[in-house]
Specification:
The chain is built from 18 helices and ten strands. The protein is an alpha/beta fold and 476 residues long. The protein has two domains: 3-193 and 394-463, Aldolase class I (TIM Barrel); 255-390, no CATH class. An eight-stranded parallel barrel has the order 1-2-3-4-5-6-7-10, surrounded by five helices. The chain has a two-stranded antiparallel sheet with strand order 8-9. The longest helix is centred in the last third of the chain and has 27 residues, at 352-378. Residues 202-220, 333-345 and 391-396 have low confidence and may be disordered.
């Protein structure tokens, strides 16, 4: 089983600094097997502040800010025969900052800091030059995406462990770990949509909107792709600005929008007689194709965290409405009535869509049942919403407990990093320990509030099933 690694961060003015030994002990007792931290001493912060960081953290409390506190932390960790390493993984260093990095390395050696995590070749070269005897880890920012890059580091430097980037998928992690069975790897449970390391692509990123990137995802469906020739198009003197705008335009109508459009036309069929001379039959025919195309969408379920009139839930309810219409028409045919058929004179709907209607009905009913139960437990709906939205980040942890089981089966995955938003270290470590020991994820960890978007593709790889989450919901 892999070790659990914990980041330590507290400023010199930390009000509970005297409680440092108890704090470290509580983490060790909870299962922490390794520690790492950032170091931002006064001779750096007095000059550059915390906005420019030597370790990728930009707040005082997220790192250790004095040599005294760092030394005490190292000594406490060593009491348990565990190791702690320091991050030197800012996005860049300059000729002015690199001499300060050298001073930090000197202090790390003096206080017996175990490891250094390196983000660029300059630091690797410097550590080689001084015959650094501690352990060296390759940072995620060095972008070890593939076997070739990893082979380069192993062939040229004395490497203890390689930290794979957040963007690497589970399948890629598995392939890489098998290729280098003698090398230790560290992985993240949390992934990014952008395939450029730490979002260092050509665009600005706003994760919560997912609006400006090489690939933008909407409801797990790619809606925009990067145009590698966009500069050529902009500079093309043979096209006017209107033509360029039209060519770069990536507006689209998703299939839910097409469904709503056809429903509107069916409701007002007399207004569209010229466009659809065959009447409702041709519209029904088109609708059947769209619905069959979308019947295996992974996000086809009612989401209670969003309002009833939210974009997501309106789409689901519109989808369900048309399914009911189609299925009623088909039922009418089997009972000998004469509803409008499709343009081919065949039944209006595929038989599989009867099951889909039942699934969507169950999705909505299970939401009502679950919501009612929770309200009864807590007392009133507003309080329930507030409590659950406050814990929104921690809900991602539930989903990714499956990944911990996956990682634990790969012998050279040495450590796994996880965030601790809205949940303390001790609770999270105990939760992971419980899951790993039981070797299964109990149903209590799967609820309607977990986020599909970040981990869907990796979990599909684990379950070998695209609609795994919809199946879980249907069994509740």
């Amino acid at each position: 089983m892999f070790k659990k690694i914990v980041w330590l961060g507290f400023s010199t003015s930390w009000k509970n600094k005297k409680a440092l030994p108890d704090y470290i002990k509580s983490l060790v007792d909870s299962g922490a097997g390794e520690f790492f931290t950032g170091y931002n001493p006064p001779y750096w912060s007095d000059k550059f502040g915390f906005e420019v960081s030597p370790n990728g953290r930009f707040s005082e409390h997220e790192q250790i800010t004095s040599l005294e506190t760092l030394k005490e932390t190292v000594e406490e960790v060593h009491k348990y025969d565990l190791e702690i390493f320091a991050n030197l993984n800012a996005w860049y260093y300059t000729d002015e900052t690199f001499p300060i990095i050298k001073e930090m390395v000197k202090e790390f050696i003096e206080i017996w800091m175990d490891w250094i995590i390196c983000w660029n070749i300059s630091i690797l070269e410097y550590l080689t030059e001084i015959n650094y005897s501690g352990k060296i880890n390759i940072s995620t920012i060095l972008a070890a995406y593939n076997k070739e890059s990893i082979r380069f580091y192993l062939d040229n430097y004395k490497i203890n462990k390689i930290i794979l980037s957040r963007e690497v998928t589970l399948k890629e992690i598995e392939d890489i770990a098998k290729e280098f069975p003698e090398t230790k790897f560290e992985v993240f449970w949390e992934w990014d949509f952008c395939r450029y390391n730490n979002w260092l692509c050509f665009a600005e990123h706003k994760y919560w909107a997912r609006d400006i990137c090489t690939v933008v995802v909407n409801d797990l469906v790619i809606k925009k792709r990067y145009r590698p020739d966009f500069k050529e198009l902009i500079l093309d003197e043979n096209k006017n600005n209107i033509e360029k705008i039209e060519e770069l335009n990536d507006e689209y109508i998703d299939d839910f929008g097409k469904i709503e459009d056809i429903i509107l036309k069916i409701d007002n069929i007399s207004l569209f007689q010229r466009e659809y001379p065959k009447g409702e039959g041709l519209l029904v025919d088109n609708l059947e194709k769209i619905i069959l195309k979308n019947k295996n969408r992974v996000d086809l379920f009612f989401d209670w965290l969003k309002p009833l009139n939210s974009e997501n839930n309106k789409k689901i309810l519109a989808f369900l409405r048309w399914l009911r219409i189609l299925n009623k028409k088909q039922l009418g045919q089997t009972q000998g009535t004469a509803p409008t058929g499709n343009s081919r004179g065949e039944p209006c709907v595929h038989p599989d869509l009867q099951h889909l209607e039942e699934e969507l009905n169950n999705s909505f009913k299970s939401y009502m049942k679950y919501n009612k139960q929770k309200i009864q437990e807590i007392g009133w709906e507003a309080k329930l919403k507030a409590l659950e939205l406050q814990k929104f980040y921690s809900k991602w942890d539930n989903l990714n407990l499956y990944n911990y089981l996956f990682f634990s089966e790969i012998p050279n995955v040495d450590t796994v990093k996880f965030p601790t938003r809205w949940r303390n270290y001790e609770e999270k470590l105990k939760l992971i320990e419980e899951v790993l020991q039981s070797e299964k994820v109990d149903e209590k960890y799967i609820d309607r509030w977990i986020s599909l978007e970040r981990a869907h593709y990796d979990l599909t790889y684990l379950f070998k099933e695209k609609n795994w989450f919809r199946k879980i919901l249907s069994e509740k």
